[in-house]
Amino acid sequence: MRSATHYVELSARLAKLWPGRNQTAKTETGTDVLHSRLARAVFSHVAGLAAISAITEIYRHEPWANVTTVGFTFLLAILVAAIIGGFSTSLVMSVAATLCYDYFFIPPVNTWNITDPRDWVALFAFLLTAAIGSTLSVAARRQTRRAESQREEAIELYELSQGLLSAPDSLALCNAIPQHLTDSFQTEGAALLLSEDQTVFYSAGASHLFDAAELKASLSEKTVKVNRQHHLYFVPLRLGMRVLGVIGIAGRELSFETLESIGPLITIAIERARAIEQVGKIEALRESEKLKAALLDAITHEFRTPLTAMKLSVTGMLSDLNFDREQCRELLGMIDEGCDRIDQLVDEVSQMSRLETGDVRLELAPHTVGELIDTAFASYGAALGGRPIERHVANEDVPIRADLAWANKILVHLLMNANLYSIPNGHITIKTETNKGFVFFHISDVGPGIDPSELGRIFEKFYRGKDHRCQIQGTGMGLAIARAIAEAHSGTLTAVSTPGKGSTFTFSLPIDRSLV
Prior knowledge:
alpha+beta; 5-stranded antiparallel sheet
């Protein structure tokens, strides 16, 4: 029993030294690979032989053990070894178990001579069963490992596809693809070569892993190219007969199926990004053409009225030289008014263009609420005439951060709208309030209001209400300009209206926290 215990302890120690079969594989090259494989083989075979020796010693000293029990125990140990150590280990154990089985347990014991033919049949049946069982076990284990590897690579492909969808444009996508490959598949590095301009993109610190000449040479390949000496894989990116580029992957052995899937996935992602950019350009061009058409239509309409008046005035003065001074003054006033109208139109178009392109540089400074309101009334108050104004401003001293000249345009335009659309002698209400770091300015009128179907469109450029297009002059640019100015200040401009009762326009400007 002491000898059996010794072999059991030896088996346990060797099992601890057995290399982990499920540990993540590390990239090894040259002599390291040879030494590692040799060490694994030695440990596996020594541990297997120790197990056979331990079983033999245990059953030799047990009187209740019979030939059948010993045979099944040997067979079980061999199958377990096939699962853990591989086919070569199980084959060595099968030979050793057969010899021990013959010598120690089949009569005559302690000899290599078998007299009973049935024992020969049993011995060969045992050896054949061990060999077949080991083969099937190893095949099943290999299939399991392959399935697990394919499952992991499928997950990594999914992660890669998710990463490829996050890029905002094709250039950012091409920059990100190598790093996405490295992060998703845990490779040493990756590279992307585009065939159009021969640009090479690398993942972080991977430029030394790839030879640009080898990448370019791989463009002509139709399938995956493998450089086993340096553990490099080159995957062509093809779209039909067109070659978009090639992907280089270093340091990670991937299945051929996964490599074949990476190519089309990246190709589709690049083409998708380019298609989205192209659609965006086409849409921008279409919107630009629509804007130009609307602008031309609006300008044509708005220019025609003052130009017609100016033309009539000039024609009249040229055709009859006997106008008195008062008549000449009236005609020149019409010309002057027309020039002002045209100048206003050009100014509004220029302002909108500058705001949309970001050419406006706001000179933000602290100003009080009362200062902004007083500036607006100084600019437009005379045009209000005797219209009653209700002013409910309880926070006139609250500082706001704004460009006073531009912010004044918002308030002046809203006062102008309220004046134009209010009923005669209807009052205009100005009210302010502070909320969440902003000052909100409410300008209300008493007028016809805005139809609910039009409320969402009144801030569009050149849009004018259908009921007021012919009654009140305007280009439909004012509210669009006012909203753009408010948004440039990080504020908002909104409207609510009750048909038949009036409308309230509200814009917000941020409070200057440095003075609060």
